[in-house]
Amino acid sequence: GGPDRPRPGFTLGSNAASAPACAAELDQAALVAAATSELGDLPVRSPRVPRPSGRIVVVGGGIVGLTVALLLGETGRREVLLLDAAPAGRTDPAHRAATFRGADAHHLSLTETLPHATASRREALHRPLPEGGWLTRDPRSLDPAEQAWAAAFAAVADRPGFRALAADLAVGLNRFGLAGWEALLRRRPDAFTTLRVDRRPSRLYLSAAELAAGLRLQSRVNAAAHELDAAEVHRRWPALGPEATGGGVVEVDGMTVNAHAFAGAVRDLAAASGVRFRDSSPVRRLHARPGGVDVELADRSTLAAASVVVAVDGPDLADLLGADARSAGTVQQVLGVFVTIRNPGLHHPLKVHAPEPLGVVNLTLSPDGIRLHAAGGFGFLGLARPRPGEPAAEQLAKALEDLLGRLFPGPLTVLERRYSEYPMTPDGLPVVEAVEVFDGRVVVAGGTNAGGTVQAPVLARLVELLLDGEPGLLHQALHPDRGTVRGFAGRAQ
């Protein structure tokens, strides 16, 4: 056309882009990018207004369930009841939520949890732990849902472009979570006086190449990230031996906390806001009814609820909702190990980028500084529950203790071992699902990929929006039936 006539537009396409699998992945990539933008506009805290919501039951007393209950209580929900399978005081380790089964230590940072399916881990679920893999079971014992999860994990590892987008969204979720906790600490400092909070955690890289890659990543997401000089490293961590000096240490934004005391403070705040708690109350099943949900407890008694928030993961989620929820197959679990030793001479917490199958190891001080909690390891369990004397647990503990022996020359005094399970999704993003079978009155929140503490505030806000009937792009991007797992890890079998 001439200068006064608009030129017709055109579209470039390819046969590959029209393939169903590719189209689904492109759709999900666009959705994740849009959701990352939407997250930047989400207020950390919604205004407190009276909300005639009826009874809301929260199932699960870990940090995600506690944070959901706190937010719902603080924003004016009339009746919130949290059901926890653990007994009061959580004296039985076998019945603790994951937050309390591990050691009294957690790290929170912008990169605390990123998609674990990297190119170097593509075959991790096919290699046993001693060979640097994650496999803890005979592959023939994996059921179809577990095999599908493993296939989805490998597929994400093969898609670096999508993984980068997912990592950006994960960083955004972590950033929101950190801002939420910082706001709460400022608003209620009196509630957290019994725990140790260390600011500005640091990451130790064991080689120059790992240091360079880590510094690039941390500098990209965190303007305050910087490398510490050798004198400062020695001042903060004088016990580190020669094997720890091949790379360097990068300080980043965030904090480390004593997890049990931190979660206990959140529970106390929730109780003060009007939330009620029932311990020793495992839930057996949920039943839809007109206008609400019946919550069946293990003793066969029933509670009526207007809505239910499910904050349990792995086999507990599969047992509770089974084929009713897509998230029941998308969220599976990996085994981690916690080893507590006498502090060999550290003045600050530290995160160590270690060889597989340890992954990233958190070193956290007890409040009195006498003990050092080390946490790390990935052993794929799928939907299986750990067995007493699990060989994989012993292998992970030995690998962790060997690492500690190399980092800190001299005799180590092991005071305690603990084991816990991390809920994980194939693409490293959590799940938030309004379950269709229950007309959206049941909401699942979990799959936090070893980052439940840092992501709990954002999951709580997303749950709140779903209960208020205000879903957005974030909910679509975190729905368990999203493109990267569709056709791989669907319903639990």
Give your account of this protein's structure.
This protein has helices spanning 20-39, 63-74, 98-101, 144-157, 160-187, 208-221, 230-236, 259-272, 314-321, 327-330, 391-407, 452-467, 473-477; strands spanning 51-59, 77-83, 106-109, 197-199, 202-205, 226-227, 248-251, 254-257, 276-278, 283-289, 292-297, 302-305, 307-310, 332-342, 350-353, 360-365, 371-382, 414-424, 431-434, 442-446. Helix content is 33%, strand content 23%. It is globular. A hairpin with a 2-residue loop joins strand 10 (283-289) and strand 11 (292-297). Helix 1 packs parallel to helix 5, helix 2 (63-74) crosses helix 12 and helix 5 (160-187) crosses helix 12 (452-467). The protein is built from 13 helices and 20 strands.
Keywords:
alpha+beta, disordered C terminus, 13 helices, six-stranded mixed beta sheet, 493 residues, single chain
Write a brief structural summary.
By secondary structure, the chain is of the alpha+beta class.
**Can you count the helices?**
13
**Mean pLDDT level:** 88
List how many beta strands DSSP finds: 20
Largest sheet: 8 strands, mixed
Residues in β-strands, percent: 15-25%
Please mark out the parts with pLDDT under 50 across 5 or more consecutive residues, or reply none.
10-17, 487-493
C-alpha-based Rg, rounded: 23 Å
Q: What general outline do the C-alpha atoms trace?
A: globular
Helix content: 25-40%
Neighbour order of strands in the largest sheet: 6-7-5-15-16-17-14-18
